[in-house]
Design brief:
Blueprint lengths: L2 H6 L9 H13 L3 H14 L4 H9 L1 H7 L14 H4 L9 H4 L14 E7 L1 H11 L3 E4 L9 E8 L1 H12 L1 E5 L4 E6 L2 H7 L2 E7 L6 H15 L3 E5 L4 E7 H14 L5 E22 L6 E3 L15 E3 L7 E4 L4 E22 L4 E14 L19 E18 L3 E18 L2 E16 L4 E17 L14 E20 L25
Helix pairs in contact: 2-3, 3-4, 3-5, 8-9, 11-12
Length: 522
Amino acid sequence: MSLVAGLLSVLPLPAADAAKTFAEAQKAEHAGHMVQAYLLYSQAAALDPSNPFYRMKSEAVKSRAALESPPKPPDAPRKPETAAADSASPFDPPDRNQRTPKPPPELKGAPGLKDFDLHADAKSLWQQVAHAFRLEAVFDTDYETGPPLTFRLDQTGYREAMRAAEAATGSFVVPISGRMFLVVKDTDAKRKEREPTVSVSVEVPQATTAQELTEIGQAVRQLFNLEHMALDTRMNMVVMRDRISRVVPASRVFDELLHHRPQVNIEVEMMEVDRTSSLAYGVDLAVTAPIYYLGTFWNSPVPAITAQLATFGGGQSLFGIVIGSTAALATLSRSDSRTLFRSTLRAVDGTPSSMHVGEKFPVLTAGYFGPASSSQGGTVYTPPPSFTFEDLGLTLKVTPRIHGMDEVTLDLETDFEVLTGESSNGIPIISSRKLASKIRLKEGEWGAVAGLLTSSEARTISGLAGLSSIPVLGELFKQTNKDESTSEIFLIIKPTLLNLPADQFLTPTIWTGSETRPVTPL
């Protein structure tokens, strides 16, 4: 049955049965029935859509279910055999299917469970076990019969029976076809001579780095003592070649180590709020009074004065004092500005990811500022200026560490740079705010990472000296200016788990045998 046909056969269940269906799916996954587990997990997710864990478990076993039950292509129509096809020329090119590497044969014993109570030598024991499951045993040329053995088993399938016979007779089996196998004495020399040598290629996900691929390959090679192993980082592929008892478990362990690491979706919001206010009140008095000479001594001209003058002696005085203007004022100005950076970052567990929101600002680092021409004539070579680019705005680097299904630890490095509007020797001054922190949050929880508050206040009093210091009445002879500014920066972050971490997957049991007696696939 294909996976699609299995999905169509699923019948709707009441919503209250979602937990029961999920428990049945876990039992099926433990038993290794991935197609059934995928169907049950999908049922649980459909019955209880509010539980994201059901959906994640369904996606986790989907790939394994597809491998267990691949879709079968339609059978091609058979062509009638002709006399020309029977008399094929030996010079014809070989068929492509004949050149394609094929897997080693696999035994297909009769189904069912058998009981054994035997007392016979090794060859007779093997023949009786093989005939019980409709198999045929052949023996190596120098295979020794040995003394009689007692062999008892109850309700055993053909694989378990053959494993027990291998242990009882000190032999190992090499499948020749689906119904025939070769029995060889289990020694190191016979292993090298008779055990099949196979090559297996393992495709590596694109997200795996070259360093990680090399480390996993070295670990697997040392664990199984593989003779030949090649890593192709360009094609993302690993090729292993050795005896089948080593290559088969090594490839399975390699697949488990290459399990897709979980990913985290990180939402980042950075808010900056600036507030400024300016207040001015009081009386603006003239603090200076120019005195002009109004006489004609030595025929000096009378100055042209447009301002009002104060004279003495009924206008007969020779001097006048300019009367300044006075104004009462009360002004207030306020300004508020808000800046919001909102972004989403996706990161793999244990892999750093970075993000920059802003622009690159060129800063002059070297240039020529001498004369354009020399004293001896000619033009001076002017080298082009050199620039460096500074990242203005928000730069965020985050490395997530996932702890099960509930919590995520984030290693944060943030840098916020803006122009101050000032410069030194023609080079602009850049304001920088940096933060390096480690925070642990629950999955789907907002957390405040950092905050910065900057406040400044200035007060200026101007007026007539002495008079402006008089209590109460001094307010009539002075002017007061108040300037206040406040800047607030707030950084919040929220992690969301996108798929299941590694500890939520079931680790399969891989039988390898011992170093002296490895398990040969049947």
